[in-house]
Amino acid sequence: MHQWDGMEDPQQPWRMCLRDCLCQGKFINGRISSMIIYKGLSARTDRQAIPLPFGSRGGLLLHPSHATVDCAYGIDGATRELDDPGHPGCSEEFCDADDVVDQNGNVWCGFSGAPAMAWAPGDLKKLLETHAKSGAKWHAPGFHSGYNEVILNSARHNEQLPRAVEGFFVPKDQDPITTDLGFGILLDATKAHQAFLDEYGVTADQVPMLEFDPTNWDVPFSPYPYNWVRSG
């Protein structure tokens, strides 16, 4: 899944920026920062909910069969600082998946540093297994709250549209309009969803608008309640 982060095309936020993308006041090359979530993460008792960098931002569910993984991290990899145009968001070298534990028994490679060193796409399964056991301690949504970071290729994503997108979502009890991206960018997930359906001639059954409840490990996504009313 991908939460809005300003690396999208603001007019068509299901489509990703490829170059000269404005991120936190800096122009960088395009990449998709995503995370992999699944019920097995709940086996660790500190994880009271699905770990997230942002508690209120909507975003996209991405289809794994139409996503190209460039690299991955067991933490927030501070990937904004990694901007080689050949592989933006990824470090120059990858971790040796068989040598990621330090002399004190702590997992270090891909799980520490800002920016961190990335794991190769071929080691994704082992990264997720390591993250499930040794990822950062969970806390309420915010940076370094226990999520993983998987960098997907923006150009390949755009080439795979509309199949690359499985759905749009808004976190439960949150405004569908994300307003904290800066630079005057406002993204309304419900309007973006309808525009996507219109653009590609698909139905809401094929690509649904969803509500995301990070506290529900069994069924985190459900049909979006269009009767949502902003509090206050």
Explain this structure:
The radius of gyration is 17 Å and the shape is globular. A five-stranded mixed β-sheet has the order 1-5-8-11-12, with helices on one face. It has a three-stranded antiparallel β-sheet with strand order 4-7-6. A two-stranded antiparallel ribbon has the order 2-3. Strand 11 and strand 12 form a beta hairpin. The chain contains three helices and twelve strands. With 232 residues, the chain is of the alpha+beta class.
Determine Rg (CA atoms, Å). 17 Å
> What is the number of independent domains?
1
Q: How many angstroms separate the termini?
A: 30 Å
Strand content: 15-25%
Show unreliable segments. Answer: none
Helix content: 10-25%
Shape: globular
Described by strand count, sense and barrel closure, the largest sheet is: 5 strands, mixed
Question: What are the secondary-structure elements, in order, as H or E?
Answer: EEEEEEHEHEEEHEE
Quantity of strands, as a count: 12
Q: Strand order within the widest sheet?
A: 1-5-8-11-12
Task: Please give the count of helices.
Answer: 3
Overall pLDDT level: 95
Quaternary class = single chain
Content-based structural category: alpha+beta
